[in-house]
Amino acid sequence: MALDTVTQYVGEARVLLQDLVPTYRYADAELISALNLAIMTARRNRPDLFLEVVTIPQFVTSDITNGTPFAMDSQYRVAFLFFMVGFAQLRDEEDTQDQRAIAFITKFTQQLMTLT
């Protein structure tokens, strides 16, 4: 699994969300919003990950079709994916999704805060 572009993040999020059949349950804009929130949260908790970044990225849905890169240290890329999935599931109206969403966001925090 490569997580080099916004397209790949959205694709992998759809796999974990079991949302692979068009028309998708989660809109592209929702998943992009979740990625942007993950970036803001990571920047607050781990500003060192963004020291060499001139402009903090904020993606839009056209970045999916453009294959826009998301440059992040490879050991933290899966953490961003977990946040995207957790945030998308928090927006669901089903009570059963809450525990799974919390688990994904907790994994995001744990992986983000683990220094290796």
Care to describe what's here?
The chain has one domain (6-47, 63-113). Helices cover 56% and strands 0% of the residues. It has helices at 6-16, 28-45, 62-66, 77-90, 97-113. It is globular and about 40 Å long. The two termini are 21 Å apart.
Q: Please tell me how large the radius of gyration is.
A: 14 Å
Which regions have little confidence, pLDDT < 50, spanning 5+ residues? none
User: Could you give the order of the helices and strands?
Assistant: HHHHH
Note the gap between the termini.
21 Å
Major beta-sheet overview: none
The average pLDDT value, as a whole number, equals 92
In short:
This protein is mostly helical.
Topology record:
Blueprint (H helix, E strand, L loop, with lengths): L5 H11 L11 H18 L16 H5 L10 H14 L6 H17 L3
